[in-house]
Amino acid sequence: MVLMSDSPPSRKASRLLSWGLHTYWRFSRGMTLGVRGIVLDQENRVFLIRHTYVPGWHLPGGGVETGETALAALRRELREEACIAADEPPVLFGVYFNQRTSRRDHVLVYVIRRFTVLEIKRPDREIAEAGFFPLDRLPEETTSATRRRLAEILEGQPPSEDW
User: Fold this and answer.
1) Residue 33 located in a structural domain
2) Is the residue at 108 inside a domain?
3) pTM as predicted
């Protein structure tokens, strides 16, 4: 079920934006750290987002800011990108090296099974579409990293060290 829509960015534009942001982070941070949340509901659906600036469907999440804990970043990102609040502490599933982004990027993946939807996520400058999707009918454009994380958590696939 898709809750909103907008046109996808061009691959060239998204790569240029990603390169620019990571060039900035390279000089402003020793290492970049991100968080992603796998939000699973009781109907066997997962919450996914589609950004306005990169192609594909992703797990909600983002960067951990200076002076911010990983859990605080996850709570912030879930509110901003999904309008969701965890009802209990998220469970850390794994730590992944995201060398596609940079040689210094790591992603912490958390599982959230008890949560409150604060409101329906509407499109904004960052999020083009968002919603819950049945695990057996993910959008075709769901990223391979997102599909691998779901397979590791839900199908018992061996966890990878790489994003």
Assistant:
1) yes
2) yes
3) 0.82
